[in-house]
Amino acid sequence: IKGQYGKYFAVYDDKLRNELLKDQAITDSMEDALAKEQFLVYLQPKYRIKDENLVGAEALVRWIHPELGFQPPDKFIPLFEKNGFITKLDQYVWDKTCALIKEWDDRGFTPISVSVNVSRADIYNADLADILIKIINKYGLAPSRLHLEITESAYTENPKQIIDTVTHLRELGFIIEMDDFGSGYSSLNMLNEMPIDILKLDMKFIQNETAKPNSQGILQFIIDLARWMHVSVVAEGVETKDQLSRLSEIGCDYVQGYYFARPLPKLEFEKLLSADSRK
Ligand code: C2E
Ligand code: CA
Ligand code: CA
Ligand code: CA
Fold first, then answer.
1. How far is the CA of 113 from the centre of ligand 4 (A)?
2. Interatomic CA distance for residues 181 and 229, integer angstroms
3. pLDDT-based confidence at 211, cuts 50/70/90?
4. For 42, phi and psi rounded to 5 degrees?
5. What is the pLDDT of residue 210?
6. 39-49 pLDDT, tens digit each
């Protein structure tokens, strides 16, 4: 037993050491990666359910690492949230996103708005509004072209601070989306006080919906509540036709999900956008 125990720890140590080394490698190369434009903005189209028109997109970052290869955000975002680099990366993504919106406007595509992720650390940055306005002005866009996705858990963590920040951003004209709604603990009472424009339902909701029939009532209830609050609803993680028809029945406004499209690199997204602009 003693031998096995030792062996177990040896394996565990190796695993831990490898993870730490990998984290260190990521930390050592992140600044350089930003300068060398290794971070790419992918776009996942968002559709209006009513007419299935493309109305927007969510900007999602990817890292094309020279040694580690294609990296999805789960591989580096949590680390960047810990080491603080996320604020820098987010600003980069917002800038690249606005540059894209401007480019598409100039090329005559149907004007769309794009949602960007705003991490918890960004909310606590006193310069957030100034930074966003500076980017918007750099490209001559209306703030409403940029939707700011803030995760539900950030709202519950520090409601007072977030209400102040978000109220200000809305006054400036930005559109606020509450991301991952239903994943956390936002009480209905608090929801009513939240200055938001759009509720983005947590993916697990949609994926449970078809599996567990008793969750259907809850989803309908949330959508009715959103309507009462004059807030529109986006469902993400929609993978099947059944999920789409169900969401349509209960009055959900927009969808995003693999059923329509995965997050796409710029050129592929532009093919969809130009096809839609001809409709
Ligand atoms: P999120 O903001 O909740 O983004 C939605 C995630 O669901 C994306 O994962 C997207 O690719 C995935 N997804 C979309 N449709 C479907 C579907 O039909 N089925 C399934 N199973 N998944 C779907 P992704 O791109 O890997 O991003 C993961 C998370 O990383 C994001 O979750 C977001 O929290 C974070 N993230 C991504 N880009 C950024 C960024 O630029 N800044 C910050 N702060 N966070 C980011
Ligand atoms: Ca999001
Ligand atoms: Ca989400
Ligand atoms: Ca159209």
1. 13
2. 15
3. low
4. -95, 160
5. 60
6. 999 999 999 99
Specify the residue for token string 């750099």: 138
Gap from CA of 118 to ligand 4 centroid (Å): 28
Q: Which of 60, 81, 96 to mutate to test the pocket of ligand 1 (most atoms within 8 A of CB)?
A: 60
Where are the strands (E) in the chain, listed by range?
39-48, 54-65, 69-71, 113-117, 146-151, 175-181, 198-201, 232-236, 254-256
Q: Which of 58, 76, 63 is nearest to 34 (CA)?
A: 63
Q: What is the chain's length? A: 279
Question: pLDDT grade, residue 5 (50/70/90)?
Answer: low
ipTM of predicted assembly, 2 dp: 0.97
Residues less than 5 Å from ion ligand 4, measured at CB: 53, 276, 279
Dihedral (Cα; 246, 252, 254, 259), 10-degree rounding? -10
